[in-house]
Design a protein that fits this description.
The complex is a heterodimer.
Chain A: H1 6-17, E1 26-34, E2 38-45, E3 50-57, H2 65-79, E4 88-93, E5 99-104, E6 108-110, H3 111-114, H4 121-140, E7 143-144, E8 153-156, E9 161-163, E10 170-171, H5 200-203, H6 222-225, H7 234-249, H8 254-258, H9 266-275, H10 287-298, H11 310-320, H12 322-343
Antiparallel strand pairs in A: 1-2, 2-3, 3-5, 4-5, 6-8, 7-10, 8-9
Helix pairs in contact in A: 4-7, 4-10, 7-9, 9-10
Chain B: H1 3-20, H2 32-56, H3 60-82, H4 86-107, H5 115-119
Helix pairs in contact in B: 1-2, 1-4, 2-3, 2-4, 3-4
Classes of the chains: A alpha+beta, B mainly alpha.
Chain lengths: 344, 120
């Protein structure tokens, strides 16, 4: 008797799990990733002749909690039309009863992979500012992301920055009532000691009850980790953004840290610390305030997160105006030398 | 402020200041007014040339190098006309050119594109 190999078994399992797209405008291409609630597939939209990503629920229960959540995620995305947020194209139920939604197929890399090739701190901070733009937009529309982390940010092939995975989004102000109930009683279970090779989904944790909260340790605000759902507001996302900023600002190696393009100082540390303060009241009041402080840092201006000493002010001024200061100093020194030599 | 105007004004001001620094050389103090006027005109010419360059080429380094070249050439011509004071004229003139080159690239505003052409 001959046994099937693990690889063959895996292929069979994937085939059996593949969604039945009969009756839809989509043709299945390949499996892309596994998410919290289901699987993301690449598919061909045969009407518009373009590649799309289909997020398909694992279980064929169109009325279950997960289906409601997937529908809700699609609706949240639909109300967030922004260049930094992946657009949703379609939502529906497959012949096999599984709920799905179609979204833009993003070809690119996750932020944590992408930054391995970004060796300049200012470039990384500029990426961060674009993430902030998308999150600030969502907040302005009354939506909290609640799971901001490097794995949920995609950098497209042309440098576009897209905030993904709004499955945990919470609607603060709702002009259109969400289908799924809010999460007043939700609690959090964290996956202990996540293995390095685990997927982010596995690292994130799920609890069901009246609602579902997923979160990623290290990026989740303390109030979110406590399950203090009623207290969650945009400052919870600001905490996650602060953690993301710390992640981006960390030099990949001591050699990189020594490079002139990696000049990280106390001001940036202060911004990280203020954004990730334990007490929400100590954090930035809005994402715009956080991104404004990072912009000021990039422009060589004083940041609100830290009061600097006179020496630091001088050093910052010199860093900002190095070229003109050196040129004017060269002019003055040269003038003085010419005077001295002409009088001899 | 657009780059040519910025180059012109900065060239004029720095040229005048540079010319006025001749006051520290007692031998030429009697000709100070002429030196200031000449230096200002030199600065204006250099500033306009650097401003035009900045409008075409968007590079801080090239702007500084071009400023150095223009400042050097104009100062050299002036020194030739003076038959002397080469160092005293060329060195400051070149550095002033570099400063104007830097400033036009860094602070000069790009020419605005008309709204109609942006739509098309």
């Amino acid at each position: 008797m001959k046994f099937l190999s693990d690889k063959a078994l895996e292929r069979l399992r994937e085939g059996a799990d593949a969604p039945d797209l009969a009756g839809t405008r989509y043709r299945l291409l390949e499996r892309v990733a596994r998410g919290g609630m289901g699987v993301v597939y690449a598919a061909q939209d045969q009407m518009l002749e373009r590649r799309v990503a289909l997020k398909v629920l694992d279980v064929p229960t169109p009325d279950g909690d997960l289906a409601l959540r997937l529908n809700r995620e699609a609706r949240v995305l639909a109300r967030l039309e922004h260049p930094g947020i992946v657009p949703v194209h379609d939502v529906g139920t497959l012949a096999d009863g599984r709920v799905f939604y179609a979204m833009k197929f993003v070809e690119g890399q996750r932020l944590d992979k992408h930054i391995e090739s970004v060796h300049s701190l200012p470039d990384r901070l500029r990426l961060f500012l674009r993430i902030c733009d998308a999150v600030a937009f969502a907040h302005a529309r009354g939506v909290l992301h609640r799971d901001l982390k490097p794995a949920n940010v995609m950098i497209g092939a042309f440098g576009e920055v897209l905030v993904m995975d709004w499955g945990l989004a919470k609607i603060l102000r709702d002009s259109v009532p969400p289908e799924a109930p809010a999460d007043p009683d939700a609690t959090i279970i964290q996956a202990p000691n996540a293995q390095p090779n685990e997927t982010d989904t596995a690292r994130a944790t799920a609890v069901t009850g009246h609602g579902t909260i997923l979160g990623t340790p290290g990026y989740m605000s303390p109030e979110q980790a406590r399950g203090d759902i009623a207290q969650l507001d945009q400052r919870s996302d600001i905490f996650s953004l602060g953690a993301l900023l710390c992640f981006l600002a960390a030099a990949p190696s001591p050699q990189e840290a020594a490079r002139s393009t990696w000049r990280k100082d106390k001001a940036l540390d202060a911004i990280c610390a203020k954004a990730t303060a334990i007490n929400p009241d100590d954090r930035y009041s809005s994402v715009s305030a956080l991104s404004a402080d990072v912009s000021r840092y990039l422009d060589g201006l004083p940041v609100t997160a830290r009061r600097e000493t006179v020496f630091e002010k001088v050093a910052r001024f010199y860093r900002r105006y190095t070229v003109p200061i050196l040129l004017i100093a060269a002019y003055l020194v040269m003038r003085v030398l010419l005077l001295i030599f002409s009088r001899r | 402020m657009n780059k040519i105007l910025l180059g012109l004004l900065l060239g004029a001001v720095l040229g005048a200041i540079d010319g006025a620094s001749a006051w520290f050389t007692p031998a030429v103090r009697t000709q100070l007014a002429g030196i200031i006027i000449g230096s200002t005109i030199k600065g204006v010419i250099a500033g306009i040339a650097i401003g035009f360059f900045a409008r075409k080429v968007h590079s801080l380094l090239l702007g500084i190098v071009f400023g150095l070249a223009v400042g050097f050439v104009l100062a050299f011509i002036v020194a030739q006309m003076q038959h002397g004071y080469y160092l005293e004229i060329i060195l400051p003139g070149s550095i002033v050119g570099m400063i104007v080159g830097y400033a036009t690239q860094r602070y000069g505003a790009a020419t605005a594109v008309p709204a109609t052409s942006r739509q098309s």
